[in-house]
Amino acid sequence: MDDNILLEKIANKDENAFQFFVEKYHTLVLNVCNNILNSYDDSMDVSQEVFMKIYESIENFRGDSKVTTWLYRISVNKSLNYLRSQKKSKWFSSLDILFNNNIKNYEPEDDSLKPGEDIEQEENKKVLYYALRKLPKKQNIAITLNNFEDLSYKEISEVMQISVSEVGVLINRGKKKLQKLIIDYYKNN
Amino acid sequence: MKCKEIHKLLHQFMDNELDVEQNIEVQKHLDTCANCYSLFIKVQGSLGLLKPNSEISEQTFYFTRLKQKMENKIIPKESVFAGFLSKKLVQPVIYLSSLILAVYIGILIGSGSVEQNSYTEVPNNDENYIESFAQHQYLNELDIEPIENLILSDNNLNED
To answer: What is the mean pLDDT of residues B59-66?
Structure first.
């Protein structure tokens, strides 16, 4: 089924069309979120928020870009907002445990090994994500979309709504900064 | 070349941005310095993970869970002012007052009340003074052991 027809049906609150849409794109959204958040559980939560937003505000999609571009844009924004809110709620989370059990508590990263991954690779991954989060937001997004999602500069420019040359600058500067951050991390630890 | 200089040039070395001479110098150093070589390997390891990543495969019950979440989601209609009050004002005030209350209760429990400290009301020439004083040397006013009674009474005799 054509994406535009699907979206029209979703706008008319056709549940079958929405189910088809979700089943078609949920792995894409999940992996974009996971590449930013590096957490399966958080990616599940945020990806669901993405689809809920799509369902509620489908009329905002004007059809001037591909559906995947739109999905990338919402997924990236939701993931970054989630990271921001995690930072803010970290201080209050310990008090929230006492006063409000309904609030989702911040959990530290799971340090246990995933099956098949050795300790060194896990460490390398942690350091990479640590450095990525230290980058300016736009550099982080550009590198994530270019390297993890394998998007071209043109596709990234459509997602981020900037020029292709800006994407190039963001990626080049971002990678240099990333290298320095990783070198500094290993030097100091 | 010293290690500090190598660390500064490492990222350019990895991007092949050094001139031939510098490249050779860095390579020589890495061949001889275990620490710098180890650093180089670790950095390469992390940067090597910057590649297409689709860790999460298709999730069978994804739509079911999503639908459940959508049905359970309750969006309370609250005014902007109420939202501001609850998040920016009420919550911090409640946390702060709870903290102050907890510290105050802690101080009260720790210091105890002077009125409850009965040994201070007993004149110190009273024969019960020593016993009352001894009792209050113990936390929670546990009864003193019989042996201490004997020691105290011995002390009393000696003083006499």
So the answer is: 91
Query: Which DSSP symbol is given to A113?
Result: P
Are A186 and B36 spatial neighbours (Cβ–Cβ below 8 Å)? no
**Please, what sign has the CA dihedral across residues B74, B77, B82, B83?**
positive
pTM for the predicted model, two decimal places: 0.65
Contact residues of B toward A, CB < 8 A:
7, 10-11, 14-15, 39, 42-43, 45-59, 62-63, 65-66, 69-70, 73, 91, 94-95, 98
Dihedral over Cα of B154, B156, B158, B160: its sign? negative
**Cα B21 from Cα B7, distance rounded (Å):** 17
Same domain for A9 and A96: yes
A128 touching B (Cβ < 8 Å):
yes
Single residue among A77, A110, A143 that ends a domain in this structure:
A110
B13-28 per-position pLDDT tens digit: 888 888 999 999 999 9
Domain final residue, candidates A90, A110, A130: A110
Residue A168's domain comprises 114-189
Report CB contact under 8 Å: B95, A95.
yes
**Interatomic CA distance for residues A31 and A148, integer angstroms:** 9
